[in-house]
């Protein structure tokens, strides 16, 4: 592995190539740099490499880094607008810490969780942008809903929670040695995404993100239509914890 900057350049190159294979360009795919377990100094390198979308999976860890990272961004020459993505399973009692701080929550998987975002958002006068999390393999140890429950959930939330804006879907898929083995899951997620986007009025309604693909499978995910990939290990190396 190279430096963080070199690794990002490599990932960016692979994203561009995969986007082209799917008839799109690099600009059509957002790279979320997954910074969980990484230090603020490591995050500084990401910002210096020109990145601004960061992803954390734990609320506590996110809050510990939030001000420090904002400070780094404010002092950097590029003055990036940091976009925080919350990508991990969430408990309702943590929602109050997120309103107004996160750009996008990828992991909404129940009406009750969405209700909490709505209640907090209404109080603060700030809506929260969310994705609905799909658990494509139906794995018990992962959170997320099935495709059919997803359609129902999107309908319920869109109908009655004005402070929750559904911006698309996040798909989690089983781990596989060969990413080709999960291509079918990505394809099914994209079909679901397209069908819902059509029902919801698509881009005009802001339903535009399909978050899928991590270090070992992001190129396949992009080939199948991902608009956002969540990459940690390929940027920073293996996590210790
Ligand atoms: C940790 C994590 C990632 C990044 O995984 P890597 O294999 O390190 O790229 C992506 N998505 C979610 C939900 C994660 O928790």
Outline the structure in words.
The structure is a single chain. It contains eight helices and eight strands. With 241 residues, the chain is an alpha/beta fold. Strands 7-6-5-4-3-2-1-8 form an eight-stranded parallel beta sheet. β1, α2 (40-48) and β2 form a beta-alpha-beta unit. α2 crosses α3 (59-75). The longest helix has 18 residues, at 4-21. The mean pLDDT is 96. Bound molecules: pyridoxal-5'-phosphate. Pyridoxal-5'-phosphate (PLP) is lined by residues 34, 36, 57, 87-88, 214-215, 230-233.
Any chance you could write out the topology, listing elements then pairs?
Elements: H1 4-21, E1 30-34, H2 40-48, E2 53-56, H3 59-75, E3 83-86, E4 104-108, H4 111-124, E5 128-135, H5 147-160, E6 164-172, H6 183-199, E7 209-211, H7 218-223, E8 228-231, H8 233-236
Parallel strand pairs: 1-2, 1-8, 2-3, 3-4, 4-5, 5-6, 6-7
Helix pairs in contact: 2-3
Bound molecules: pyridoxal-5'-phosphate.
Summarize the structure.
This protein is an alpha/beta fold. Helices cover 41% and strands 17% of the residues.
Features:
single chain, globular, alpha/beta, binds pyridoxal-5'-phosphate, 8-stranded parallel sheet, 241 residues
> What ions, cofactors and ligands are bound?
pyridoxal-5'-phosphate
Q: What's the pLDDT, averaged over the residues?
A: 96
* CA radius of gyration: 17 Å
Question: What order do the helices and strands follow?
Answer: HEHEHEEHEHEHEHEH
What is the tally of beta strands?
Answer: 8
- Main sheet properties: 8 strands, parallel
Strand content: 15-25%
Task: Please list the strands of the largest sheet in the order they lie side by side.
Answer: 7-6-5-4-3-2-1-8
Stretches with pLDDT under 50, minimum 5 residues: none
Label the structural class.
alpha/beta
